[in-house]
Specification:
The chain is built from 9 helices and 22 strands. By secondary structure, it is an alpha+beta fold. It has 2 domains: about 15-155, Chondroitinase Ac, Chain A, domain 3, CATH 2.60.220.30; about 170-505. The strands form 5 sheets. Strands 1, 4, 5, 6, 8, 9 and 12 form a 7-stranded antiparallel beta sheet that branches. Strands 15-14-13-16-17-22 form a 6-stranded mixed beta sheet, with helices on both faces. A 5-stranded antiparallel beta sheet has the order 2-3-7-11-10, with no helix packed on it. Strand 2 and strand 3 form a beta hairpin. It is elongated, with a radius of gyration of 25 Å. About 50% of the residues are buried.
Length: about 500
């Protein structure tokens, strides 16, 4: 089911509308002659560096890139580009295959096509999967730097449709995992799906059929945070650090209850499929060990505030509790990269309670006097407006919505997955109403029946859906999936399809 859904989603995504006016042609590059099929050029290049040229294609090796003389060969082939790519040039081979350089070498490939979209796709080391490399164009040439030899072509990942931007080879994935007492089964479900997610990003093959569906991600970073932002200094049971909590800082502790996990991991976990010794299964396992946060976290979840603080630099005008600043250039430095797609994934069974007034958490407050379980819904005026987060997440990507994915695996009724944000919010199950059977809780928006565990229930995630809708209106990709499933396979498939669109440079 998961594979079928993803293939369908990608097929639909390929029909994306373009950024050019109907009936007009996109700007084309100055025509450049393609070397004839079968033509080849070789040169012996050593530590001093040098250049190999095949027609208008050039490869420039800087001094110090090689430690001994090597015969380098470029060949123009008639090999086809992958099915879901449109080629703007021939496919070229660079030999000896697998050769690595101590310093990056420069390539200039001739092409004919839209220079705003033209991307060099270079196969990953020891792989048949193409990944996009940072590309600029100049007078019909696509220019880039690479570190190893493989196959390459210039093109786009849109299969003939007009797209909105170049593909990228970098993805920053931020997992926000609810650590409250009701999340045991949900954390397990997430951990089961992470290996498939990492494999798909590393190869570009989403359905496991051996064919590449979108550009592989040459550099994947994963960070995990919790929604615990403290309680403004007020003492609250389950909130062990009342002032700032986990504070949106990336976490690195391993799952203490899993003997296969290490005690700690890097806060920013990095995976490069083409690097020596890269092991996607091991990387996915490491991510799972951190993402299983346990269930003794703070019962006041501030999902949006935690994510915003994690990706906001200290230089931003946005400030947080007690005037503190964002962590993107401090504790979380290096996680948010300029060219990368940023994917924010919330896994939670509660609505957001990002408080502008921390007195909301004071259990003895005369102003906020209802039961603590109901305060976040009873006093919406004490919360930050959703616009703070739509604007803040876009700011984290420099305003470039094409590089942003916002996904919720939350209390969405199962039959509303895939519906518009307006339709989800209009559904009666998404109303925040006191449960007459349990008067100190809200009525659940959805429930899950587990074989060997008590039923799971989730609250209406209105603020999370509202944030997704506001971001989608500004051009970001969004997903609203249900946490009320024993398996997150479909949810992860939806997220993967949306991220694949943005990695490939597609637009909606």
């Amino acid at each position: 089911m998961l594979r079928t859904w993803i293939v369908l989603a990608l097929a639909l995504a390929l029909a994306c509308p373009g950024s050019h006016e109907p009936g007009t042609d996109p700007p084309m590059a100055t025509p450049r002659a393609q070397p004839p099929v079968g033509s080849s050029e070789s040169a012996l290049i050593g530590p001093a560096g040098g250049t190999v040229a095949l027609g208008e294609l050039t490869l420039t090796v800087p001094e110090g890139a090689l430690d001994a003389p090597v015969e380098l060969t470029i060949t123009a082939t008639d090999r086809p580009t992958p099915d879901r790519f449109e080629g703007y040039s021939r496919v070229f081979t660079f030999a000896p295959e697998g050769l690595r350089f101590a310093r990056p070498v420069r390539v200039a490939l001739p092409f004919t096509g839209d220079p705003a979209l033209a991307t060099i796709f270079w196969t990953l080391a020891e792989s048949e999967s193409y990944a996009a490399v940072p590309t600029r164009t100049e007078d019909g040439l696509a220019l880039a730097e690479v570190h190893h030899f493989s196959q390459a072509f210039v093109g786009t990942a849109c299969e003939g449709a007009v797209c909105c931007g170049r593909a990228t080879d970098e993805l920053d994935l931020l997992l926000l995992v609810d650590s409250s007492g009701s999340m045991v089964e949900e954390q397990d479900a997430l951990a089961r799906e992470l290996p498939a997610l990492v494999r798909a990003f590393a190869t570009g093959d989403v359905d496991g059929d051996g064919a590449q569906d979108f550009p592989a991600v040459a550099s994947l970073q994963v960070g995990t945070i919790s929604p615990d932002m403290g309680t403004g200094g007020h003492e609250v049971p389950t909130c062990s650090e009342p002032f700032l909590g986990d504070d949106g800082v990336l976490l690195g502790a391993g799952n203490l209850f899993d003997a296969s996990c290490e005690e700690s991991y890097p806060r920013v976990q990095r995976f490069e499929p083409g690097a020596p010794g890269a092991d996607a299964e091991r990387f996915a396992r490491n991510v799972s060990c951190v993402a299983q946060l346990g269930t003794d976290g703070c019962g006041f979840e501030q999902q949006l505030e935690a994510a915003l603080k994690a990706v906001t630099p200290s230089t931003s005008a946005t400030s947080f509790q007690a005037g503190t600043r964002g962590h993107a250039d401090g504790a979380n430095a290096g996680f948010v990269r300029e060219r990368a797609v940023l994917a924010l994934v919330n896994v939670t069974d509660e609505n957001d309670c990002s408080a502008a007034d921390p007195e909301l958490f004071d259990l003895d407050s005369p102003r906020f006097a209802t039961d603590p379980n109901l305060r976040c819904s009873d006093y919406p005026e004490a919360l930050h407006p959703v616009s703070r987060y739509a604007e803040g997440f876009l700011d984290a990507k420099g305003g470039d919505a094409s590089r942003l994915v916002f996904a919720n695996i939350a209390g969405i009724p199962r039959d509303l997955e895939g519906a518009s944000g307006d339709a989800i919010l209009a559904d009666p199950r998404m109303e925040e109403r006191v449960d007459p059977r349990e008067p100190f809780q809200l009525e659940p928006s959805c429930t899950t029946l587990y074989e060997e565990a008590p039923p799971g229930r989730a609250s209406p995630p209105r603020r999370l859906v509202e944030t997704a809708s506001a971001l989608e209106a500004r051009g970001a990709a969004t997903v609203n999936a249900s946490i009320c499933r024993a398996s997150f396979g479909d949810a992860v498939g939806r997220i993967l399809a949306r991220v694949a669109d943005r990695v490939a440079g597609r637009c909606e």
